[in-house]
Amino acid sequence: QKPLPNNELSDMYISLSSLYTRLVSMAALQQTPITFQSRSPPSKEITSKFQSHKPLKTSFSGGFPSLKLPKLTVKFAGKSRSRGGTAGAKMADSPAGSYATALADVAKGNGTLETTSADVEKVGKIFSDPQVYDFFVNPTIDIEKKRKVIDEIASSSSLQPHTANFLNILIDMKRIEVIKDIVKEFEVVYNKLTDTELAIVSSVVKLESQHLAQIAKGVQRLTGAKNVRIKTVIDPSLVAGFTIRYGNAGSKLIDMSVKKQLEEIADQLDLGDIQLAV
Predict the structure, then answer these.
(1) Which of 44-48, 79-83, 96-100 is the least confident region?
(2) The pTM is what?
(3) Which Gene3D superfamilies match (predicted)?
(4) What angle do CA 136, 141, 142 make, to 5 degrees?
(5) Which of these, 212, 185, 216, lies nearest to 92 by C-alpha position?
(6) 97 and 177: one domain?
(7) Bridge partner list, 202
(8) Pairing of strands 73-76, 57-60
(9) Where are the alpha helices (DSSP H) in 178-275?
(10) pLDDT digits over 240-278, tens only?
C-alpha cells in the first residue's frame, strides 16, 4: 500500500485538528459536573439471575484554560496489518481462534455473517459479567442447568439457532471458559473476511455521530480498508481531545489528547511525570 501524499495527510490533519479544537472548546464551556455511565448490562432477564453489578459511574467537572493545539502523533508499535497470507493460520493456532474461525465459516456458508457478528457481540456483553462467566465455568453446576440458561439467553437476546448451538457445544466440550477469547478472535476473523479496519476512539466525553464519521473517513484514508468500524471508550484521564488506535492489534496510535500535550510539555521542561487529578 502506497503512503498517502503529503497534501492528503495535511488535509486529514487539519480535519482532525478542527475536530479537536471543537471538543476542547466544548469542554472549556462546561461549568457543571457531568456524570458518565457505563453501558447498560446485557439483559435484565439474564443479569437478574446472576446479580449483575451496578454500572460504573465517573464524575468529571471543571473548565480548561486556553491550550495550544497538539501535534498529530502517530505511533507504530509493529509492522502494518496484512490483509491476507498467514493471518488466518496464526489465529487458528489457538483453540479460541479455531472455534471463532469455525463459527465464521458456518455463518459465511449460510449467509448470516453480519447477523452472527451481532450475535457474538451480544454474547461478549453477556459473558463480560463476572457472575455469568463464573456460573458457566463452574464445574460443580450441572450441564443441563447451563443448557437451560443458554436457551433463556438465546430467547431473550434473539440469537440465531447456530449461535445457540455453538454455545452448547462449548459447554458439552467443557471449553466455555475460552468464550471471551473466542469473541475477540471472531472480531478479528470477521474484520479480515469483510476487509474492515477496527478503530478504537477514546475520549473524555461521548463524541457525536458526525465526529465519529469524520474520524472513520480519516482512518479509511490511512489504511485503505473497505470498511471502518468504530468502537468508543470513555477515558477521563485524557483531559480533553481524543486518541485513535487502529492497525494490527491496535499497533498504530493517533494521539490528539490534552494529556499527551501536557506530557510533551513536561518532557521539554524536564518536569518528570505530570499527575493529572481527574
Answers:
(1) 79-83
(2) 0.57
(3) N-terminal domain of the delta subunit of the F1F0-ATP synthase
(4) 105
(5) 185
(6) yes
(7) 233, 243
(8) unpaired
(9) 179-193, 209-223, 258-269
(10) 888 888 887 777 888 877 777 777 766 766 655 545 454
